[in-house]
Amino acid sequence: MPPLHDAAVVFARRGLLESLRRGSKHTKKHLRFMSSKQQEVIGAHNNQIAKLNANLICQSDATNHRRFYSSTPTFLSDSQLETKSNDERITTNIGKDGDAQKKGIFAKMWDRYSFQGQQKRIILGERLFRTAHYRANDPIWYTEGRIPFEFRPRHAMLTMHIWFLHKRLLIDRVDPHLALLVQEELFDILWNDTRARIRAEGVNELTVNKHLKDVQQLTFLHLTHYDHAFQEFANDDGKRFEELAGAIWIHVLNRDEEAYNDQLKRLAAYVEYQYVNLMQGVPDDYFWEGRIPWGDLPVFRDMKDNDGKALDAVKSVPGLESMPEPWVKTLTDAGDTYYWNTETNITSWKKPT
Question: Which member of 26, 60, 111, 133 lies 3.0 to 4.6 Å from 117 by CB, making a disulfide possible if both were Cys?
């Protein structure tokens, strides 16, 4: 049957419970060598761990029925803000006054190594990646937009939207430490997805890692090209626009000598708009729930060729499948295609009709 994704939660939970048991056995005997202030800090930290341990044990039966992207309720201090989506919770480090609270060493270690910290960044990383993936695979890009429906242009469209999210995470002021961890998770998910798409192309398994390394190099060149455009020409709109059009021609259209100037201008304008949208327009609450309002796609109607003649409409694109809502096409790690209903979580090997 198609993958159900709940093994990761079970193994992570077992690892956390075991680490909690080991830690509780060796903590008390060292307290007598610490100052009273240090003992108070360690004692408060242990109380929080004890609460979490009890909560995990009480909910262990229910966890086996959750997907890897579901979240368990977390214990919130007075300085934390709880944000909710439909049935999930993501906590951030923002205070009631709207400013980020500075994290100590224990809080940073908790974010990186605890079960709940890992689960939090996996959930948000998956949400951000899926919204970028969904946007980059919109059929309009490859029909009206006339972007070639091939591996490299499709990957470039995905990494373009990953770059927007990456830039937003870099300037985050809600929880800068967690934002960096989410950024790492986001790129890990991207490389896992890229490896699956490489396998789906039918390459020899022994060459998958070599192809992945080549794609990573192209990806970094692509992303740094955008960085260069916005950093070097921050105050020169004309040159920045030309640089963005050049980056799109190189990485998205694969240096196509027959590319249309009209097409390049509309794609470059989209990058300009989307950069401002992610950096200034998306509210923090939306972003930390993984809900990205990307806005409208570029209008590709009435596009003209380089001689000023109107282009004919694209009726069909080889390899591009249309899916009934709310089904999406996705891949296993082995590169096999299956279909996922985003509303009911039903998966199927057969294409839905």
Answer: 111
Q: What are the CA-CA distances from residue 334 to residues 3, 133, 161, 284, 315 (Å)? A: 11, 18, 24, 36, 32
Q: How many CB atoms lie within 10 A of CB 312?
A: 7
What b/e sequence results for 113-135 when a residue is b if at least 16 CB atoms lie within 10 Å of its CB, and e otherwise? Answer: ebbbbbbbbbbbbbbbbbbbbeb
DSSP H helical ranges for the chain: 7-26, 36-58, 60-63, 105-113, 115-136, 139-142, 151-170, 176-200, 208-232, 237-251, 261-276, 284-287
Counting Cα atoms < 13 Å in the Cβ hemisphere of 19 gives 14
41 by DSSP, 3-state: which? helix
93 within 8 A of 178, measured Cβ to Cβ:
yes
Model pTM score: 0.72
**b/e per residue 332-347 (b: at least 16 CB within 10 A):** eeebeebbbeeeeeeb
Residues in the chain, pLDDT under 50: 1, 4-34, 37-38, 41-42, 45-46, 48-89
Give 330's strand partners: 338
The two three-digit tokens of residue 332, written as one number: 């296993």
**Assigned token pair, 142:** 């490859």
**What is the DSSP pairing of strand 337-341 with strand 347-348?**
antiparallel
Q: Residue 103 has what pLDDT?
A: 80
Tell me 82's DSSP state: E
Place of tokens 């809502």: 325
Handedness of CA 337, 343, 346, 348 (dihedral sign): negative
C-alpha torsion sign, points 137, 141, 144, 148: negative
| Alpha-carbon span 150 to 156, nearest angstrom | 10
Which class for 77: exposed (0-12), middle (13-18), buried (19 or more C-beta within 10 A)? Answer: exposed
Given the structure tokens 């896992």, which residue do they identify? 192
Residue found under tokens 């040159």: 239
Question: Residue 104 is which amino acid?
Answer: G
Say which DSSP state 322 is in: P
Residue 289: both structure tokens together: 């729930």
